[in-house]
Inverse folding.
């Protein structure tokens, strides 16, 4: 029975007895003085002529219309704690940077929590309230300054976030534009190739195609570099104009990053003759033979298309042979033993 | 024969494979935890299984913080025992454990350690040929160590045929799928690229159901190779262009790896180039800008660890408290 009763009173204004079931548009308001729930039309009716006592029986607190607000949390206790928290944190609004050490800041935070707890649970309520008022009166200017500073910070941060977003958009836009240009260029090139092929004799068509392909490759590499340059330029401009990004750089590394942890041979003990790496040059290795090593056996392998397809390359054979020949030179076993 | 003083103690069996049983043990002189791999003999026609020989041969040569340490090899009563560093966890376990969160700095750190280990193998001209998260073990101090050299081999003569039937299917490079017999260290690089992708996705990147499906899955994700992007691909023994998929655009990759930065995508792309001669090598990968951009790789000791262990530690702590 009690449950049913609760259910009914929950959606009913106790003053005018209007029911949410019959008038679904009604809304309830509360006042942080006493947190009694009153419907919007009653608030209008009772408080529009100025402050008046709460209409709940045995309450009688004087309420003002402008303090009424919508309830956010279902649990009225939580609603009240949040209100207290809001009020207190506007008064005790120091941040970590106002304290010389973390310990002192923590003590301050604990003090604030104590005040909130006391007010919320009615422990020494009057005394605490008095303390808060005293603190507010004594530190009025400081509190104002701090709140100005916080609002400044917030607006700086939102500005920064907006700038980051704009930078991202700009990068994307440039890249897309370049992609479109590339596609157009490709089409145009294909058309040209077709024209050339149809106008020339069949003998050198292979050559034309090859030339075309190498041109395309060169161009795409060039474009890649161009894109990289553009984006890095944007990045630079961005970090120059933004004070917030610089801060991050300041906290950076204590020790430089070492990809190999110092364990890499930087200087080979030999110098290689130029060895062709390009597939076309390798297939034509006999014409390059006088510039590089004379090894008819390996050179024959270098032309094998199956080897080439699997990623096999002539220069790795010579590099490995020389590496293995020099491996262990300059390595002293006694020293190595000491290390391990 | 005189009995030598006991150097190792064997405590419990922790696993069994086709050719070996693994026991947990301790090195008596240092009280260090070790794993003893007892190789089964007599069941193979040549006496010992090939992979055991490979494992001993290459691990004896390699010594690096990111390669598993072979402490000792001994034989007792007609069997062969490998004494290895004891490593309690592997990367696959962590990837599958959804309660563990990977930060981008963690992924960077694991990738970095993997690359360092393989760089050491490659500069000694040893190919691992079976890289997968399951074979990347994690030490208690967070160091990642490359293990299982059962398929490793060193590069031989320039004309020597290598078998293309290596590497677990999901991590197999396209030239191997096409049956290439003269492949290069780039096959390991491919595996690392796929592992990198798996670390970001937390699920296998190219899970082919069988060898034919693996080709399809690979090319669906990365495009079908053509003579243009991979010269002479059609000369490979088992080449076939089943279905032609276009290469993925940058935007598609961005969508697939939503948390990846542009630099990490660059690295991933150069590690997973279809043409092995265009794939980056280990030195290039380690020098990539990805490792220089923020955030810095996590220090090994701060990397995420297996959850289970933490529970156990808590239990231990609880027990201690109760005793007190």
């Amino acid at each position: 029975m009690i449950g049913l009763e609760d259910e009914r009173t929950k959606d009913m204004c106790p003053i005018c007895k209007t029911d949410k079931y019959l008038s679904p548009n009604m809304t309830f308001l509360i006042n942080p003085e006493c947190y009694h729930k009153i419907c919007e039309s009653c608030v209008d009716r009772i408080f529009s002529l100025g402050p008046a006592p709460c209409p709940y029986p045995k309450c009688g607190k004087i309420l003002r219309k402008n303090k009424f607000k919508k309830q956010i949390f279902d649990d009225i206790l939580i609603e009240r704690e949040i209100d207290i928290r809001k009020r207190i944190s506007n008064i005790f609004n120091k941040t970590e940077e106002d304290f010389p050490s973390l310990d002192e800041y923590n003590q301050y935070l604990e003090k604030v929590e104590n005040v909130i707890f006391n007010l919320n649970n009615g422990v020494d309520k009057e005394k605490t309230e008095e303390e808060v008022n005293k603190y507010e009166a004594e530190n009025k200017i400081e509190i104002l300054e701090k709140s100005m500073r916080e609002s400044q910070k917030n607006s700086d941060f939102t500005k920064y976030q907006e700038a980051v977003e704009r930078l991202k958009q700009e990068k994307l836009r440039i890249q897309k534009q370049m992609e479109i240009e590339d596609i157009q260029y490709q089409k145009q090139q294909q058309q040209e190739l077709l024209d050339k092929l149809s106008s020339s004799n069949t003998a050198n068509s292979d050559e034309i195609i090859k030339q075309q392909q190498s041109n395309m490759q060169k161009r795409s590499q060039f474009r890649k570099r161009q894109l990289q340059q553009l984006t890095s330029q944007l990045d630079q401009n961005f970090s120059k104009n933004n004070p917030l990004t610089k801060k991050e750089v300041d906290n950076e590394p204590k020790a430089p990053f070492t990809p190999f942890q110092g364990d890499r041979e930087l200087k080979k003990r030999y110098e290689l003759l130029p060895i062709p790496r390009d597939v076309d040059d390798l297939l034509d290795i006999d014409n390059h033979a006088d510039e590089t090593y004379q090894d008819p056996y390996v050179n024959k392998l270098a032309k094998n298309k199956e080897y080439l397809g699997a990623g096999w390359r002539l220069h790795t054979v010579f590099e490995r042979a020389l590496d293995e020949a020099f491996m262990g030179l300059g390595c002293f076993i006694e020293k190595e033993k000491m290390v391990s | 024969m005189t009995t030598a003083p006991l150097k190792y103690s064997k405590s419990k069996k922790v696993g069994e494979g086709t050719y070996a049983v693994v026991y947990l043990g301790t090195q008596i002189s240092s009280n260090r935890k070790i794993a003893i791999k007892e190789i089964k003999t007599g069941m193979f026609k040549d006496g010992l299984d090939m992979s055991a020989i490979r494992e001993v041969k290459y691990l004896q040569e390699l010594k690096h913080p990111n390669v598993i340490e072979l402490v000792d090899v001994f034989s007792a009563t007609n069997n062969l025992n490998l004494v290895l560093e004891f490593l309690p966890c592997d990367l696959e376990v962590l990837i599958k454990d959804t309660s563990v969160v990977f930060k981008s700095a963690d992924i960077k750190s694991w990738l970095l350690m993997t690359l360092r280990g393989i760089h050491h193998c490659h500069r000694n001209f040893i190919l691992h040929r079976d890289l997968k998260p399951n074979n990347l073990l994690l030490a208690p101090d967070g160091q990642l160590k490359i293990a299982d050299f059962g398929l490793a081999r060193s590069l031989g003569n320039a004309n020597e045929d290598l078998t293309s039937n290596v590497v677990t299917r999901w991590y197999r490079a396209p030239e191997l799928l096409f049956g290439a017999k003269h492949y290069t260290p780039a096959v390991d690089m491919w595996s690392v690229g796929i592992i990198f992708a798996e670390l970001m996705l937390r699920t296998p990147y190219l899970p082919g159901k069988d060898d034919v499906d693996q080709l399809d899955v690979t090319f669906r994700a990365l495009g079908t190779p053509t003579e243009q992007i991979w010269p002479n691909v059609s000369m490979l023994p088992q080449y076939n262009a089943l279905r032609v998929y276009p290469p993925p655009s940058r935007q598609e990759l961005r969508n697939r790896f939503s948390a990846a930065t542009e630099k990490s995508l660059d690295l991933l792309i150069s590690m997973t180039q279809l043409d092995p001669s265009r794939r980056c090598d280990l030195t290039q990968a380690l020098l990539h800008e990805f490792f220089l951009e923020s955030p810095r790789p996590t220090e090994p000791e701060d990397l995420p660890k297996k959850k289970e262990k933490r529970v156990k530690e808590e239990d231990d702590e609880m027990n201690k408290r109760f005793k007190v």
Summary: The CA atoms of residues 112 and 293 of chain B lie 13 Å apart.
